[in-house]
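Researcher: Good morning. I'm working through a list of sequences from a screen, and I'd like to move beyond sequence-only analysis. For each chain I'm collecting a predicted structure so we can compare shapes side by side. This is the next one on the list. No need for commentary yet; just the structure.
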Amino acid sequence: MNEKALAGKNAVVTGASSGMGAAIARRIAAAGAGVWAVGGANAEALGETIDSCAAAGVRAGGKGYDFSDGRQAGAAVREGAEFLGGLDILINCAGTRNFKALVDTDDEDIDFMFEVNAKSYFFASREAARLMVPRGSGQILMIGSVSGERARANRALYCATKAAVHLLTQSLALELGPLGIRVNCLAPGLIDSGRVKVMLAEDPDQSKKRIAGIPLGQLGDPENIAATVVFFLSPENDFMNGSIVAVDGGSSAG
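Model: Good morning. Structure tokens for this chain:
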């Protein structure tokens, strides 16, 4: 694949302060895309992502937004497109987790999870489509989860939000594909970053159990996801639309 496969493209990446989002932003910048990195409250981490992207020689900027109001994702896309001078790629990667039993899940948990994990994707995608449709081209990539395909106890809220992302992907692929816009979803498994890293470090026994359930015998790395993202977006992959692809070491194969 061409080292600069995304040269001349402009991309908005949500969830870009750390973890998978930061790795994705850096990798697509290295592939030649200008980047608007959308973060949250951690301004220092977001600044590091932006600096890393700029070091690749592309136009790079970004800003923190509060996705507890999903509408902010639409504003992030608009401002990113204005900064970059257009929009070719939207990567919806913002996300949070809530692993509680149903009876312990309160109203605020439900509202927050759907705002961040589902509604922000819808608002961002709508804004991106409004910019892409008149041009007849563009790509929207959702970062979903294997939990959007496979249910687990004490994960009802998280699974529901990710399932919403997966069906949103397929619905938009049907709607926007004829207009020249491809929409796909990458569904990671257990990735060693962010909250997952903290969660597994706090419970070594659970960590060993989860790793034992991965045929490759190891956790994923944010760079695994970022590398796959570049393939999703590259010209060599121009016939993929409406796909949900697991990158999980084989854990969902059984």
